[in-house]
């Protein structure tokens, strides 16, 4: 007797963009999904989008913020579930934060949510490193956190990709930005790392396509009770050790001058994230570093991980990369 598999209808609104295309590529061979699609020339046609948004079991929004808000308003039924890859709903009421490794409960929260926002690429690393330390009481919530990092130019979407690729070697090798200190990722970084002060954040773009590295240097000497590097590392490692289907790994505590492991491209085309702790107990200093793919765990990988959770599919097997 043939067994009937439940086939979920998925519509990627913005499927022609950087994130949308990558999600499509990750889903296209799946027999448990039917991908609903709009002809490219009608991709901004509101009526066509409304029809597919309402026909979908899950809509994945890969759009600029305003268009993502519009998509949500076009859903008139109470059955379509939404994963929004934009910044529009990251700290909004009624939306589950789509970083499944945020806590022991978060995968379950995502699995039962109707509205899930994918995390921003930049905040995921700092949140993954700081939240365990704040929860363990090793770093206080009001610690003056600074964050810096480098991403490949695909982080800026189609316009930035075209700009860098047309300039080639003439494009800047390294370009700090966010210099007005108002980066759109600050609210979610602060909220989900459980900080009471807004972090000071300086991102930068490198002349490479994808992959990212985010660093959080800690001047621990200002604390009354200074944690050791081993304590920081143990708190982070313990946090992720027991999580089912975690895509966050913690590198061994290492006293090294340099390591090729801090290549921002090292986890490209995967849904993985690797966390490092470097420290000097003598100086009461530490540097936390996260390496992941801005288009993988930072965007399309996380979206597929969330989709799997919402559909009750085993994320570990379908996201093995
Ligand atoms: N790139 C990255 O690393 C990450 C991106 N994100 C977020 O994901 C979202 C998509 O980003 P990204 O894929 O990089 O962006 P892109 O610019 O590459 O793609 C956006 C897509 O949406 C289309 N679009 C724009 N306006 C509308 C509209 N009103 N109706 C329907 N389609 C529309 C665009 O078409 P057209 O090009 O013709 O205007 C384009 O195809 C953004 O919110 C972004 O911030 C999240 C995490 C990481
Ligand atoms: C290089 C570059 O410009 N990167 C983008 C972040 C990309 C991203 O993650 O955007 P979402 O917030 O929509 O997820 C930026 O810093 O604004």
TrEMBL record:
EC number: 1.2.1.38
Pathway info: Amino-acid biosynthesis; L-arginine biosynthesis; N(2)-acetyl-L-ornithine from L-glutamate: step 3/4
Record keyword Isomerase present: no
Record GO biological process: L-arginine biosynthetic process
Subcellular location: Cytoplasm
GO cellular component, one term: cytoplasm
Keywords: Amino-acid biosynthesis, Arginine biosynthesis, Cytoplasm, NADP, Oxidoreductase
Catalyses which reaction(s): N-acetyl-L-glutamate 5-semialdehyde + phosphate + NADP(+) = N-acetyl-L-glutamyl 5-phosphate + NADPH + H(+)
Pfam family, one: Semialdhyde_dhC_1
Single GO MF descriptor: NAD binding
Semialdehyde dehydrogenase NAD-binding domain segment(s): 9-110
Family: Belongs to the NAGSA dehydrogenase family. Type 2 subfamily.
Stored NCBIfam families: argC_other
Purpose: Catalyzes the NADPH-dependent reduction of N-acetyl-5-glutamyl phosphate to yield N-acetyl-L-glutamate 5-semialdehyde.
HAMAP family for the chain: ArgC_type2
Protein name: N-acetyl-gamma-glutamyl-phosphate reductase
Organism: Paradevosia tibetensis
């Amino acid at each position: 007797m043939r067994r009937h598999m439940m086939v979920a209808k998925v519509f990627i609104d913005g499927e022609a963009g950087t994130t949308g295309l990558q999600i499509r590529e990750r889903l296209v061979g799946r027999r448990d999904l039917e991908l609903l699609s709009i002809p490219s020339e009608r991709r901004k046609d509101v009526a066509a989008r409304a029809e597919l948004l309402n026909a979908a079991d899950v809509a994945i929004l890969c759009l600029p913020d305003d268009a993502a808000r519009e998509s949500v308003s076009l859903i008139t039924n109470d059955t379509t579930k939404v994963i929004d890859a934009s910044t529009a709903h990251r700290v909004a009421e009624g939306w589950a934060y789509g970083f499944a490794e945020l806590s022991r409960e978060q995968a379950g929260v995502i699995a039962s949510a109707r509205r899930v926002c994918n995390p921003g690429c930049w905040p995921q690393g700092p949140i993954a490193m700081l939240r365990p330390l704040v929860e363990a009481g090793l770093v206080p919530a009001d610690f003056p956190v600074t964050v810096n990092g480098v991403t490949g130019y695909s982080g800026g979407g189609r316009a930035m990709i075209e700009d860098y690729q047309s300039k080639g070697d003439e494009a800047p090798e390294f370009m700090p930005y966010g210099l007005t200190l108002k980066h759109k990722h600050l609210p979610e970084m602060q909220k989900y790392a459980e900080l009471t002060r807004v972090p000071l954040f300086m991102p930068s773009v490198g002349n490479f396509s994808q992959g990212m590295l985010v660093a959080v240097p800690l001047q621990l000497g200002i604390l009354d009770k200074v944690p050791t590097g081993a304590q920081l590392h143990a708190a982070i490692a313990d946090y992720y050790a027991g999580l089912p289907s975690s895509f966050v790994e913690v590198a061994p505590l290492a006293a090294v001058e340099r390591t090729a492991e801090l290549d921002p491209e090292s986890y490209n085309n995967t849904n993985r994230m690797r966390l490092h702790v470097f420290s000097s107990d003598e100086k009461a200093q530490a540097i936390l570093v996260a390496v992941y793919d801005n288009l993988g765990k930072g965007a399309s990988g996380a979206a597929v991980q969330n989709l799997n959770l919402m559909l009750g599919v085993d994320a570990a097997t379908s996201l093995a990369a």
